[in-house]
Description:
With 233 residues, this protein is of the alpha/beta class. The chain has helices at residues 51-62, 87-102, 119-131, 168-180, 202-218, and strands spanning 2-5, 14-19, 24-29, 36-41, 65-70, 112-117, 135-141, 159-164, 185-190, 228-231.
Amino acid sequence: MILSPQSSGRHGGATEVSIPPTELPGTLRIPEGANAIVVFAHGSGSSRLSPRNVAVANALNARRMATLLFDLLTPDEEPDRANVFNIRLLAERLLDAVRWLNREPHVGALPLGLFGASTGAAAAIVVAAKLGDRVGAVVSRGGRPDLACDVLDQVRTPTLLIVGGDDTVVIELNERAFERLAGPKTLEIVPGASHLFPEPGALEAVIGLAAQWFEDHLATNAPKRTSSAKTRG
């Protein structure tokens, strides 16, 4: 259900929402003329207030894409670190959010993308495998797609994996997952960036790559890419 509109309301401004059935808090932003919507799945104990995800969402809003950032865990669940790696639980919460959006008149028919960070990336991949064509694109930022190993070969959704060039362990995990993804895919390595992309220009590189991927694959007239690529930057 919609809670309290902020700023200029549901269109252009941020609206605080509650995602059933767990009533998880979220922030929905629908820019004027929105042509797609991207749902964010954070990880590693982060929340809808993650400054990195908020920065990515703001950039997508500027390109006329609606965004939903929401908490995947309840306050009671957050202290248990095991829940951060409970991909089944995180994926169910992400599914709840997509089902809720599907019923919302202003965004339910929009092309859907998923943006996952850390363990949230695994949840996004699980949901893409489950929902098939409903998900038009997936982007993983410093993600752990390897934690979705049971479904990687079922994912036909165009998937972009972005990893920092100095995040060597996660690069290896992403390379393994990349080989198993069945659909169009690209692995981008951002040179000189560590896991959270705090270095000058690193997050901007992530934003550019993610925004382009969503624009390429969520636009209704965008051609479907069939090739795969691995780029080290």
